[in-house]
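Input sequence (85 aa), recorded before submission:
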Amino acid sequence: MLDDTYTQSVIIINKGGLVMTNSKSNQEFKSGDTVQLKLGGPIMTVKNPNYFDWVLCQWFAGKKLEEGQFSPDSLIRASVNEKEK
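Predicted structure, token format:
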């Protein structure tokens, strides 16, 4: 029997066949949100908040468009006016 410290997670398979968990952290972000890693770094734009258990983000490194997947727990909302740390 599980105690109160465990939470229940629902698995969803969308039309594209991607498996996502319906966790609270996953639902905190939506496409177009600006985010930053909690430890700093560039301001990024959320491309897909439900990329498996990750948040898919894009950002520019100079003129080059970069993309990466991050744990929702490692991200915070960021203002576009914030300077990079």
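Checked by second reader. The domain at 24-77 is CATH 2.30.30.30 (SH3 type barrels.).
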